[in-house]
Each structure stands twice: as C-alpha cells, then as structure tokens.
Amino acid sequence: AVYMCEVERHSPQVFQSQDKENLGRLEDPLPAVVGVTYELCAGIVDKPGLSIEEIAREEVLEECGYCVRAADLRKITSYRSGVGLTGSRHTLFYAEVTDQMKTGEGGGQPEEGELIQVVEIPLEDAMKFAFDESLPKTPGVILGFVWFQNNIAPNLPKK
C-alpha cells in the first residue's frame, strides 16, 4: 500500500483510467525501497488455543530471531488502527532481549511476502528517529518509542 501511494504521488496518470481492468503502466517504475517502512514486530492473532502472548512470542522468534518467554512479555496497551478501513485491534507488548536470547536470524517468512530486517536504534537517537518524518513508520512505532522513553529509559543506568 505504501508503494502504491508513492506511485500515485509520482505518477498520478497511472490511476486516472476509468477502466480498472486496464490501469496504466509505469514507464519508469519506482524502486521497491519506496514501499519499505519501519514497523514493530507483529503478527495476526489466528492460532486457536494459543494466548495472544504465545502468538507474540512466536512472532518475535520468527521475525527478530529472539527467543522470549510468553511470561516475559509486558502488555502496554491495546488500540485500534486503520479505523477508516479495517478497524484492526493491535496489542502492544514490551520485551527485553539480550544477545544470549538470539537463536536465529529472524527475517520473517519470505514465502508469505515478508521482507524483514531487524534494525537497532541507539537510545540517544530514539526520539529523533520516532519523529523524523522522512523515515516512513507506523503510529505503533511512535507509540512504542514514546512509551519506552517514558517508562523504561528513566530507569536505565546512566553512562
């Protein structure tokens, strides 16, 4: 969706055809990177018999490569996203990870269309990153960074 919005912004003529079956073609396609965004680790709650924490734990392992215990996930809040389109309910968790908990590369499931690269943001750059409008990100990323800044960062040892 992000990529298509950028196509429309750069080449609005592609979408001006009234014939939806024969939309215009891009003569000079945009690079795929314009559709890449910064996002939190996430997944669909679609596994009967598993708690939301257990599903979140599986997603952390699959997407980020860290093995966390479901009991170590701290629920922050739940909120609605895409309220004009899907009305999706999101539940935001916090987990601390260490290098010793890294058991895989992460990266998600390419066969499901996932293209995931784990990105580490230094604490001193966190709020600048969160509010840098040139870096495409979801509102959940901003919420997570603000929550962390208010609830975890003040209790970290000072350098």
From TrEMBL:
It is an enzyme of class 3 (hydrolase). It catalyses: UDP-sugar + H2O = UMP + alpha-D-aldose 1-phosphate. It comes from Nothocercus julius. The keyword Magnesium applies. Its EC number is 3.6.1.45. This is Uridine diphosphate glucose pyrophosphatase NUDT14. Its main location: cytoplasm. Homodimer. InterPro entries: NUDIX_hydrolase-like_dom_sf (IPR015797). One of its GO terms (molecular function) is UDP-sugar diphosphatase activity. GO terms for cellular component: cytoplasm. Its cofactor is Mg(2+). Coiled coil: none annotated. It comes from the Eukaryota. Hydrolyzes UDP-glucose to glucose 1-phosphate and UMP and ADP-ribose to ribose 5-phosphate and AMP. The physiological substrate is probably UDP-glucose. Poor activity on other substrates such as ADP-glucose, CDP-glucose, GDP-glucose and GDP-mannose. Gene3D superfamilies: Nucleoside Triphosphate Pyrophosphohydrolase (3.90.79.10). GO terms for biological process: nucleoside phosphate metabolic process; ribose phosphate metabolic process. SUPFAM superfamilies: Nudix (SSF55811). The gene is Nudt14. Keywords: Cytoplasm, Hydrolase, Magnesium.
